[in-house]
């Protein structure tokens, strides 16, 4: 059995198993990884997104990421964790956790989950629950009401993220079926990106989209943030081994290779098609490489990681052009084409490159009971489709609900003035 | 007296300043400006979205000169600022009624 397929899902059950002893090396690494994943959101994603919006909206994006960090943390503590993972040692249902750890009830300083403290596992997973709604912010940037964003994200965490997390990692039906999603291709990237796409389509484009230029206001912030994302992603992927072991090391290696290949691939695409390699292009390719290797980071080897990264750079590049220029959907910061397309591609490719019979491109093996690439691919595709459909429908309903309560969008005049002044009475720069 | 305004390519500023210094013109005022003539703008690309930026960055030089120096100044700027490619800029010359050095109260060509 591929050990990595167990992962977080098994960390849940491991406690019920015999050895409930804390391993200090594992604990030290997951403490570090937890900090790294939080580093991805604040400051990484904040700066990445902050630089991409226009100057009048920079604070609104930083504020959304910061406020989400606080709010999602408390919601995860209260309900999210137990919906996703249920309580230690209890047989879990297929779709939702058992609510035994509401308000982290029953988790004490002595609780152990696998080889790490239960408190640490809950915190590590909390950082995933923070960054996932924060990723969605990029789709409705520059036009959503702050209150609407808070209400939407809160409901979404409990109705979409936590259940899907349970399906895959918490002992639910997809995990039991053998879905390989090491660090969140379906749980994080597909859920966030599909919600982003639905939100962008429902809210409509920004005022002036397609007619006036909306270039990023500060690409230096974006590149700095992208660098932080890259570093933080080591905690995301290598931390998902939930141990300081060979799986973590391989995950780190393939993560880095895929990011590098993705960056160069996107850069090459722009160089070929537009004559110049752009800085935004190379960092976007890197994020695409990271998002794509994420589900596969426990299943594949280094050579496959390079193939995955290269394909991420090329496929996500075309997806971005297609959504922006052909479909004319204003996903402000391209959340869906980069994270969603990457997450889907990576989840499917994990099913191919997990195979141990591909020579230099071999991976770490299929899930228990699965013998062939076709068999693993079927499971992977099931995971993609189920996550996509459930997230799309649920996100649409939540957005409709929020629209009725407080209204999703600020009005045209406010949008022209910018969210920083209208919503927060502040300006990002006073030079 | 004449007021000469020259719009040039930014990278030619040092050459033009040097050329004017050679013919004895002592002072100038320089501004960074944006605009376009026949050259038009340039394209910027952000993740597949292309924007046409219509204005080019240029440098505007203003010098007040004595009538006798006008032709020499025009020649100096033309030679120093020329690359032979589109977008080299323009020179405008307009009459200048008066000039006063604030410190000393000198007026006219004395004050240049």
UniProtKB/TrEMBL annotation, chain B:
The modification O-UMP-tyrosine is found at residue 51. InterPro entries: N-reg_PII, N-reg_PII-like_a/b, N-reg_PII/ATP_PRibTrfase_C, N-reg_PII_CS, N-reg_PII_urydylation_site. Keywords: Nucleotide-binding, Phosphoprotein. GO terms for molecular function: ATP binding; enzyme regulator activity. One of its GO terms (biological process) is regulation of nitrogen utilization. PROSITE patterns: PII_GLNB_CTER, PII_GLNB_DOM, PII_GLNB_UMP. GO terms for cellular component: cytosol. Belongs to the P(II) protein family. This is P-II family nitrogen regulator. It comes from Halioglobus maricola. The lineage of its organism: Bacteria, Pseudomonadati, Pseudomonadota, Gammaproteobacteria, Cellvibrionales.
């Amino acid at each position: 059995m591929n050990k990595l397929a167990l992962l977080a899902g098994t960390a849940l059950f491991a406690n019920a198993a015999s050895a409930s002893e804390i391993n200090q090396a594992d604990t030290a690494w997951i403490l570090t990884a937890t900090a790294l994943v939080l580093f991805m959101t604040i400051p990484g994603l904040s700066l990445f997104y902050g630089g991409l919006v226009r100057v009048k909206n920079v604070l609104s994006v930083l504020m959304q990421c910061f406020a989400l960090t606080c709010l999602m943390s408390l919601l995860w503590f209260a309900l999210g964790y137990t919906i996703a993972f249920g309580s230690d040692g209890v047989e879990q249902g297929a779709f939702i956790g058992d609510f035994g750890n509401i308000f982290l009830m029953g988790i004490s300083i002595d609780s152990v989950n696998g080889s790490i403290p239960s408190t640490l596992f809950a915190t590590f997973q909390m950082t995933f629950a923070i960054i996932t709604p924060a990723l969605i912010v990029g789709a409705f940037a520059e036009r959503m009401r702050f209150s609407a964003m808070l209400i939407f994200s809160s409901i979404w965490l409990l109705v979409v993220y936590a259940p899907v997390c349970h399906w895959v990692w918490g002992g639910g039906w997809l995990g039991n079926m053998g879905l390989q999603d090491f660090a969140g291709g379906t749980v994080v990237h597909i859920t966030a990106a599909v919600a982003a796409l639905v939100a962008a389509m429902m809210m409509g484009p920004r005022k002036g989209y397609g007619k006036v230029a909306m270039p990023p206001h500060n690409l230096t912030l974006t590149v700095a943030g992208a660098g932080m994302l890259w570093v933080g992603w080591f905690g995301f992927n290598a931390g998902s081994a939930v141990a300081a072991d060979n799986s973590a090391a391989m995950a780190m290696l393939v993560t880095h290779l895929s990011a590098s290949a993705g960056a160069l691939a996107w850069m090459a695409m722009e160089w070929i098609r537009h004559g110049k390699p752009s800085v935004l292009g190379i960092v976007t390719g890197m994020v695409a490489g990271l998002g794509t290797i994420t589900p596969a980071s426990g299943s594949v080897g280094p050579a496959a990681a390079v193939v995955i990264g290269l394909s991420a750079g090329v496929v996500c590049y075309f997806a971005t052009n297609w959504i922006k220029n052909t479909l004319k959907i204003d996903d402000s910061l391209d959340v869906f084409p980069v994270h969603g397309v990457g997450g889907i591609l990576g989840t499917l490719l994990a099913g191919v490159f997990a195979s141990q019979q591909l020579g230099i491109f071999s991976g770490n093996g299929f899930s228990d009971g699965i013998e062939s690439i076709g068999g693993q691919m079927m499971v992977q595709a099931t995971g993609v489709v189920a996550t996509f459909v459930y997230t799309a429908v649920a996100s649409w309903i939540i957005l409709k609900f929020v629209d009725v309560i407080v209204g999703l969008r600020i009005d045209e005049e406010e949008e022209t003035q910018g969210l920083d002044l209208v919503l927060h009475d502040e300006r990002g720069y006073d030079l | 007296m004449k007021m000469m305004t020259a719009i040039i390519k930014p990278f030619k500023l040092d050459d033009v300043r040097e050329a004017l210094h050679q013919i004895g013109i002592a002072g100038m005022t320089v501004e960074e400006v944006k605009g376009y003539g026949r050259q038009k703008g340039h394209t910027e690309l952000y993740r597949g979205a292309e924007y046409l930026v219509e204005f080019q960055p240029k440098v505007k030089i203003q010098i007040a000169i004595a009538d006798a120096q006008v032709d020499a100044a025009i020649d100096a700027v033309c030679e120093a600022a020329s690359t032979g490619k589109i977008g080299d800029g323009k020179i405008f010359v307009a009459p200048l009624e008066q000039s006063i050095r604030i410190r000393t109260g000198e007026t006219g060509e004395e004050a240049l």
